[in-house]
Design a protein that fits this description.
By secondary structure, this protein is an alpha+beta fold. The protein is built from nine helices and eleven strands. Helices cover 34% and strands 20% of the residues. The strands form four sheets. Strands 1-2-9-10-11 form a five-stranded antiparallel β-sheet. Strand 9 and strand 10 form a beta hairpin.
Amino acid sequence: MSLMVSGLAYEMHIQSGITSFARKRLKAQVAARGGAEYAKFLLAKSFEASAFEESDEEAESFRILAKNLERGIGVFGIEVEMGASSATVDILPEAGRRNVNMLQDEDWEELLDQSGVPEETWPELIDCFMDFIDPGDEHRLHGAEADDGFYKSAGYEPKNAPLDTVDELLLIKGFTPAIVYGGPPTNPRDEPLRGIAHLLTTFGDGKVNVNTASREVLLTLTARGRMLDDWVVDDLLRERLGEDGLANTKDDGFASVAEAISKSGMDPVLADKISVSDRQYVRVISIGDNNGVRMGVWAVFEVARNRVIPIYWREEHMQ
């Protein structure tokens, strides 16, 4: 009898733990969604940022974030408290990434190099990508069209149109999950692949917003056939933080492309490849937390005056 009682008590303890975890996960999910809603509100208010009173100390932090978003500057690490739960929110213009559909061969080479993809595989990857999205059925030297064994075996043909999502790279010959998202290399003696998905988008006109792009993305920019020097990228990252050297403050960002080039030492030929204010499409990452249980929301919004429209949304439990 005592064994039966002990077993029942143990089972009740397990069930209680499961119920508690499910409750925390639900609250974390609500917090993550709340963080995304806060981001939407902040994006909407960014069109009214100039109307905020400078002397309103209570709204100063909010005003600075809205003002920076108005100028196309990403903001990150925003803490949103919701009772026992909280959300950490990043709001980043998609133009801080490279538009995969507009990459030229030299852009791909820098991108693959940054991600640790072996150089000997670059020609096939680049040509297969171009064959997949171009409208014709003529092969590039190392490419693959509908008559290739890879596509016949897969049961589909090249899209012959631009990608709608970065995930579609997995449909292209040669693009493995490790190349796209990062993972172990084919040769176990090589370094792990860092992935390319986090550097890419399918939104925007292809210009890179240097007010929000990461170091990795900036290093994929090329001028006169050469990637940017490390010192140029370092100067750009430092100068865009303003005199105080702090993110999410009112002196952040470059006011113009000319200023970005002047202060960073970038080659002026890059003027047509970069921007400082593009925020038509914005990525929101909201991580909700409740007592150590976390849920995430990853979303992309199309932003314009009087509307903030979600065009991509994904939710996921985080370990």
